[in-house]
Amino acid sequence: MPIDAAKALAAEPRSGEISWNSKDVQLYHLGIGAGLPATDPDELRYTLESRLHVLPSFATVAGSGAPGVISGLSMPGIEVDLARVLHGGQSIVLHRPIPATGTATATNRIAAVHDKGKAAVLVLRTEVSDGDGPLWTNDSQIFIKGEGGWGGDRGPSARLDPPAGEPERTVERSVREDQALLYRLSGDWNPLHADPEFAKVAGFERPILHGLCTYGMTLKAVVDTLLGGDVTRVRSYVTRFAGVVYPGETLRIRMWPGEGSVRVAVSAVERDDAPVLVDTVVEHT
After folding, report:
1. Spatial separation of the C-alpha atoms in residues 190 and 69, rounded to whole Å
2. pLDDT tens track for 55-113
3. What digits encode the pLDDT tens for the residues 207-238?
4. What are the residues facing 152 on neighbouring strands?
5. How far is the CA of 220 from the CAs of 23, 151, 183, in angstroms?
6. Beta bridge partner(s), residue 94
7. DSSP assignment, residue 173?
8. Distance CA 1, CA 45 (A)
């Protein structure tokens, strides 16, 4: 079997130094659609180095730019075809605001391997700390089609009850035709997002947008719409990827704010509101 769950779980964590600077942060922000309008003071917080702050979802690309979807596939006990891989979900817990320039130690390990029958799910945990202590913890859920069915633990369900009532706020965000090409410059080089032939082999009509790009675009919309543009208020952010986005489409982002948290649902406008992100929660101060 290409996945040896026992070997993967028993493997020693891998640690290494990562670093980033303001240029990396600015490139990431541009990759998730920041900077429009270019002279808007609210957008300059994401694009101008003299007033730069860091959207917490930058944690998914900080340093090496290799998110869990890619780096998790190089761990012991894991040997799979990249064309069968999908990013199933993502969560971030922020321990402190992310600085615009930094050097830190990132420790990666496989935290869980679940058998979903028709697919296997890997949970890759990345814990990042600097000289002042913990910065953030990332969990990436990686679905590998056709690799389940060995009788392993199915794992917990990540599904939440739907939000009650109509959303309090709804915004729409356009995805540029070149959005995936720009976003991949932050380090996720999976050809699924750029190569039409590879996308067809993977079962898609054309290259799709990175799930983590939609993830970042959504968090920015929540911060800008409900948190006064203050990125330091975000404490955690979790989502499940329910469908694809094609460059050139429009995201409809629905928000249900509550006490200390916001429930969010994201859909693709042009495909009859096809679900994109579900079970999405932003916790904040």
Report:
1. 9
2. 999 999 998 655 445 666 777 888 777 667 778 899 999 999 999 999 999 999 999 98
3. 999 999 999 999 999 999 999 999 999 999 99
4. none
5. 18, 40, 15
6. 136
7. E
8. 48
pLDDT higher for 108 or 135? 135
Report cis status (omega within 30 of 0) of the bond before 37: yes
- From the list 24, 115, 139, 188, the catalytic residue is 188
Q: Which of 133, 129, 99 is nearest to 20 (CA)?
A: 99
Q: Return the number of other C-beta atoms located less than 10 Å from residue 225's C-beta.
A: 17
Nearest Cα residue to 260 out of 238, 281, 239, 285: 285
Of 114, 193, 210, 284, which one is the catalytic site residue? 193
Alpha carbons 241 and 224: distance in angstroms, whole number: 22
Q: Look at residue 69 in the predicted model and tell me its pLDDT.
A: 55
DSSP string, 222-285: HHHHHSTT-GGGEEEEEEEE-S---TT-EEEEEEEEETTEEEEEEEEGGGTTEEEEEEEEEEE-
- Give dist(CA 120, CA 154) in Å, integer: 9
pLDDT of residue 5: 82
Q: Is 87 a catalytic residue?
A: no
- What pTM value is reported for the model? 0.92
- Which of 231, 230, 243, 228 minimizes the C-alpha distance to 280? 243
> Please, what's the b/e burial string for 122-140 (b: 16 or more CB within 10 A of its CB; e: otherwise)?
bbbbbbbbeeeeebbbbbb
Per-residue pLDDT, 156:
80
Helix (H/G/I), strand (E/B), else coil: 110? strand
Report yes or no: 251 and 218 within 8 Å, Cβ to Cβ. Answer: yes
By the 10 Å C-beta count (0-12 exposed, 13-18 middle, 19+ buried), 37 is classed as: exposed
Q: For residue 210, indicate whether it is catalytic.
A: no
The phi, psi pair for 13, rounded to 5°, reads: -60, 150
| pLDDT above 70: percentage of residues in the chain | 95
